[in-house]
Amino acid sequence: MPQFNDRVMALQVPGTRQFANKVSQYENGINLTLGQSGFDTPDFIRQAMTTAVEAGQLRYTHNKGLIELRTAITDYIAERFNVDYHPETEVLITNGGSEAIDSIFRTILNTGDEVIIPAPAYAGYEPIIQLLGAKTVFVDTTETHFVPTAAQIAAAITPRTKAVLFNYPTNPTGTTLSAETIQELVQLLKDRDLFIITDEIYSENIYEGQHHSFIEHPEVRSQLFYINGLSKSHAMTGARIGYVLAPEAAIDQVTKVHLYNSICAATPSQYGATAALTHPAAKQMITDMNTAYRERRDYLYDRLRQMGLPVELPTGAFYILPDISAYNSDSFQFATELLAAEQVAVVPGAAFTSYGEGHIRISFASTMEEIVEGCNRLERFLTDYHHH
Ligand SMILES: Cc1ncc(COP(=O)(O)O)c(C=O)c1O
After folding, report:
1. In Å, what is the CA distance from 206 to each residue of 138, 220, 239?
2. What are the Aminotransferase class I/classII large domain coordinates in residue numbering (predicted)?
């Protein structure tokens, strides 16, 4: 067989799916690895997609996406953050947040460029950066409650820094950024020759106070790529709808990348997303799901504390990242043993960069029954644990 691309050959396959795959083979297995809502996609969204298919809406849309959807997004952003983005020129609909990440990086990065990312971090960023021959510079947030300080970011900036990426609420820590922290970061980054990328795919999953965003700061508007999507907020990961907001000149460039890799996002999904953002029942649905997640978070947090595991209270997303290093500094080995002994699947923290090592990620998108039983088993496992 001929040779493959060098950079692809160097990529590792994430070792995380294997825990979810293995646990599904146990009849009494408990899967606490979910990276998506356990709720079904709401009826009105499914209806809108079905109606679109039946009406024959299976042709390409505009490269940037349906104007109805782009307008629904800019209306939502105006209401949420009191900022105006233009639906014709400053929005691009992508195939999930994933394609937004990929297309933005491909639009801005040259070989040797650096991207600063606070860590522990979502595992989907670094491989794209590596494919482009660029470099990720992780900033350790483990000593600062998973929140980066402006001083830490400042220390990581070099002449090669092309972008700083923030993902708040964060996968895998569940941390949010306060208005004050964002203000400090804005002061640091404004007027510098670098982009700010903000991945806010969990912005609707907030359990304390309000979500704040870089998009509220006009000082950084010319540098900002705002990523969001419907996958997590509306329990529609399989519909593959994400979006990018940025200045017109930036959207023009990202649209070139997007049209060559995708032409457009899937048309029936775009109709579903339009309904998701405009239907009168949508807000209540999000509130109801968050009420359930908050209850599960509170339960999980209390149980983990009772087990004596150091843990931060997540204020967003649907993940908690307890520290298991007193038992085993190797999170992959710990998760493997937990699965074998108790048939409970969690994600090893090492999947989220080396700064996640010594932790495990537990999802509270799982059902309350699964969380209760998962906690009972984890507690038993820790009681019997033979330390390494
Ligand atoms: C932080 C973060 N960004 C982006 C994504 C990708 O989302 P999508 O399903 O919309 O591609 C995920 C999915 O887990 C995520 O956790």
Report:
1. 25, 24, 22
2. 28-378
